[in-house]
Specification:
The protein is mainly alpha-helical. The chain has 3 helices and no strands. It has a domain of 71 residues: Up-down Bundle (F1FO ATP Synthase). Helix 2 packs antiparallel against helix 3. The longest helix is centred in the middle third of the chain and has 37 residues. The radius of gyration is 27 Å and the shape is elongated.
């Protein structure tokens, strides 16, 4: 019974003093805006990583296509450049969203 009352008293004390500890104004790097910056940076890193993988796969596919059929180099080159432009635009759109969010 004594352990239960001590535990109950500790829980009540925590509930009384915890709001005062969390009621302080955010200072330094803590606060909601810093979380937005951190999560936006992580999201941009993931987007750039995905774009880099897609560009690598597109380049590999173009090189394989050129190796199999060198006569279609102009068509493959055009499709590759167009695809790389679309892939890179995804990264730039993500950067624009990140800039507007901050």
């Amino acid at each position: 019974m004594k352990k239960l009352s001590t535990l109950l008293l500790g829980a009540i004390g925590f509930c009384v003093f915890a709001p005062a500890a969390f009621a302080q104004t955010p200072g330094g790097a803590s606060g909601p805006t810093s979380l937005i910056v951190i999560t936006s940076g992580i999201a941009y890193a993931i987007a750039v990583f995905g774009c880099a993988l897609a560009q690598g796969k597109a380049t590999v596919a173009a090189c394989e296509g050129l190796a199999r059929n060198p006569g279609s180099a102009a068509a493959i080159r055009l499709a590759l450049i167009l695809g790389l432009v679309f892939i890179e635009s995804l990264s730039l759109y993500m950067f624009a969203v990140l800039y507007l969010k901050l």
